[in-house]
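Q: Convert this sequence to structure tokens.
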Amino acid sequence: MPSISPIAQTGFANASSYDEHRPSYPPEAVEKLLNHLLVAGIPEATIIDLAAGTGKFTELLAKRDEAFDILAIEPHEGMRKELERKNLKGVVTKDGDATHMPVQDESVDAVVAAQPLHDLQHSPVILVLTTNRFSNEESLREIHRVIHTGGVFAMIWNVEEYNQPKSWPTTTSWESKIKAITWSFDDAHPRFRHEKWRGVFEAQLKTTPLTIQTADPQFSLPLGEDSVKFTVWLSREAVWERYSTLSQIAVLEGEERERVRREVFEAMEGLDVETNEKGEVALHGVTFWAWTTRV
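A:
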């Protein structure tokens, strides 16, 4: 049965707040991703939305003209109930994770994971794909099992600049300051910004001095990768609400939470903060996605 880390349980106790403040995905990114998944324009294609959370990406799939047959798999009960309340057309919601998907072998056209290895860390798809080699292999085997030959597994992330890898440049100094706050709460749990996720797939071809392995990957390499930049306009309070959905911020309490809130608001007083006529702040980020074919 799926197991969930204490970080996930605590950081996502308020699933409705997460759903309200986390962003959706740019139409351009969704269209390109579905083309890479080989399901764009395919009526009733079967898709698993793995670690579906509250259904931020599931909603976009359900709105499509293709009338996809969608299985949303999510182990966090609060997240799953929030998704079920949406009553999305063509969507069945089930408990499960990257190592336990309640579907038959080679029964789906594609699997997509939105925000895997992300700071939200609400699902074992994140933890399983990063914590140790055995679990990595177990997860890939399970994803490989459910997709038919030639089907595609894809991952997509919304990555605000305050939550990006250290090597990625920021558009403004105020976002760089908040990025530094984010990294100051590094808790050793692998996330997208640590740039470790590619190793899950590259490990398919690795050997050790004590073993000789035949190169027989379950997914094609190199991975396909693409991205689009985005800018959203939010009130300062909405920037904080969005920032505080990051799991390591969501768990903060009392004086520490107030200190971080104060630092975020102070950063938004910087000279290079861009505002519109409503007083909303321009927040920058990247939607990044990667895909690989089942072999």
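The chain has a mean pLDDT of 86.
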